[in-house]
Write a structure and sequence with these properties.
By secondary structure, the chain is mainly beta. The chain is built from 2 helices and 21 strands. It is globular. The N and C termini lie far apart (about 65 Å).
Length: about 170
């Protein structure tokens, strides 16, 4: 049995440590030479930096959600997430709790889809894209690398992000 090591000791790293029975390592810690390694941070820039600094380490995919697509090395599909047919998840992607990715989507490397986000069919996300909690991206939308979608946003086009409006009534 290979030992599990989590690169990052924040909240996501600690959660991964409980799931895989591994040990968290911070930036200053000396890392073991071999084992299964997991990127334990959600920040897309830091995910890419950790990934790039460890080219010879083994990063298995962690699939806890429903997977019907192609998931690359180092990606994490957390509890309750769902990836549908024809979807391609590139390396080192975090698809967080309860996120849904419908058919034929392409998720760029080092991206993070936060809890409860929904990507309708045929959505393409460039590398290092962040999709906030509860955001919805409608079918056919393509977002460039390093895009950031705020929580609760409805994305209807590559440059059309709509925030939900709240209407309050006086009683």
């Amino acid at each position: 049995m290979m030992l599990a090591y989590i690169l990052g000791d924040g909240p996501h790293g600690r959660m991964l440590a409980k799931i895989v029975g591994g040990k968290c390592f911070g930036e200053e810690d000396e890392l073991p030479v071999s084992g299964n390694f997991y990127v334990g941070v959600g920040d897309t820039v830091l995910r890419k930096k950790i990934w790039a600094s460890s080219p010879r380490r083994h990063f298995p995919a962690l699939i806890m959600g429903g997977n019907h697509g192609k998931v690359s090395a180092g990606s994490h599909l957390m509890h309750g997430s769902l990836i549908m047919h024809g979807t391609v998840v590139h390396e080192n992607v975090l698809i967080n709790t309860g996120a849904q990715v419908d058919h034929d989507c392409v998720i760029g490397a080092h991206s993070h889809i936060a809890p409860g986000a929904i990507l309708c069919g045929n959505v393409t996300l460039g590398e290092e894209t962040f999709v906030g909690a509860g955001a919805i991206i409608l079918q056919g939308v393509t977002l460039n690398a390093r895009s950031s979608v705020p929580a609760g946003t409805l994305v209807v086009g590559s440059n059309d992000f709509r925030r939900p409006q709240r209407v309050f009534f006086d009683r």
